[in-house]
Amino acid sequence: MPRHCAECHGSTPNFQVNFCQHCGKTFGTRIHRPTSRKSRPSVVSLPSERIPSGTVHRHHPSVTSKSLRTGLPSSSPSHSSSSYSLKSRPISIERKRRETSHDDSHKRSNSCQYKIICGEYLSSLKWQEVFFNRKHNRCYCNECYPMSCNDTFETGGSTYVIPRNWCRFGLHVDQVRAQTDHIWDQWIITYHGTSAIAAESIVNHRQFLIPGDRCIDGTSIYIHPDHIKDKYEIYTSPTIAYSSLSCYCPAQQFRSKLTNKLYNAQIVLQCRQKPGAFKVQAETVGAGNKRICSVISNDQVEILTTIRAAIVPYGVVIKLTEINRNDY
């Protein structure tokens, strides 16, 4: 690249020469940075357009010379995608911490035989795969959740009783509602015992059933003969020991193809329930002085509500009890 002398206007062909070969004037120091074709900004050729007479040209504030050169809209701090991701990332991390902090301290095992058989039973029900969120799967058998681990946690201002000897398969929860209603921070954990087909109906329609409602197979929900008549509420409990009683949670026989053994299978929905939207009362199954749960007293063991939207299921909890050969 030639150098041009400002004194005599002569041209020096060699760029590396620091003085004019015609008049001897010393050139100033320059650094040559050759621009490759790839590094040059692309130029967008705008088609010429005939402008009608009388048209006034106005500069649009959202269009800059940079946007015309690159063909991209000019950046704005309030609409930057990177700023949005930076704001949303801490929220998602904090939400994940809140969702798992109450019972995530025990080890997880992918090789647990009990968990595998519980999963086999759940697969046999042929529920839709989209229901489940595997990140919240937890097994509470003695191997995965030893006796040295806590029996209870405090969450939502209430006592959460760990479902020992049960295995949970996580369900998807609407994240918009979870954040707006503060489900993971402020709602308590309860259990709802039911049949397999009723549980599928609840999970499928995101709505709890009361007596008189119909399941997805057409069968009606009815009041158990041993229970109080003319009660049309939704019943839950802070302890799975109460929700899994046979009057709420009938067992279904299941033979595993993996072990060739016969089991009684039970299903309970683990839920988040809104405080202030329910009543607490004593047991209604005629237990008398027999203690149902070692943590929750009999006079605080039953929760009832008529507000369907105040209960959100977030896990299907399964228990398998092996049937001895002498029993069949």
TrEMBL record:
Region listing for Disordered, in residue ranges: 30-108
Where is the sequence biased in composition, kind Basic residues?
A: 30-40
Give residue spans, biased composition: Low complexity: 73-91
**Bias (Basic and acidic residues):** 92-107
Instruction: Please identify the protein, giving its name as recorded.
Output: Uncharacterized protein
